[in-house]
Design brief:
Blueprint lengths: L2 E5 L2 E4 L4 E8 L8 E7 L6 E7 L5 E3 L7 E6 L4 E6 L8 E8 L6 E3 L3 E6 L1
């Protein structure tokens, strides 16, 4: 059974930092997989935050987090991180880890970790 387990969320003041982790278990992801972070704030739709290819490390970011967030991965540890700096109250959301096989494999989601940024 494949599991994605997020951790590292919490309460932080505006301007602070958090580092989210996503530990994958149950399978080894092929090079076709892209690992991503999404977030969902109360009353809003889930939105893309950042992604990284499992093989080559190509990264993409939502405009709202560019320059503040950094996604990284360690394929040997089956782990993806999201370093979040200069946090803003509008970053408050439930953050989800995602593994997308891009049509060549299943899509997996974690259960989420809450990030709350106070002003």
């Amino acid at each position: 059974q494949v599991q994605l387990v997020e951790s590292g969320g919490g309460l932080v003041q505006a301007g602070g930092s958090l580092r989210l982790s996503c530990a994958a278990s149950g399978r080894t992801f092929s090079s076709s997989y892209v690992m991503g972070w999404f977030r969902q704030a109360p009353g809003k739709e889930r939105e893309f935050v950042a992604s990284i290819s499992w093989s080559g490390g190509s990264t993409y970011y939502a405009d709202s987090v560019k320059g503040r967030f950094t996604i990284s991965r360690d394929s040997a540890k089956n782990t993806v991180w999201l370093q979040m700096n200069s946090l803003k109250p509008e970053d408050t959301a439930l953050y989800y880890c995602n593994a997308d096989g891009r049509g060549l494999g299943p899509i997996y989601w974690g259960q989420g970790t809450q990030v709350t940024v106070s002003s």
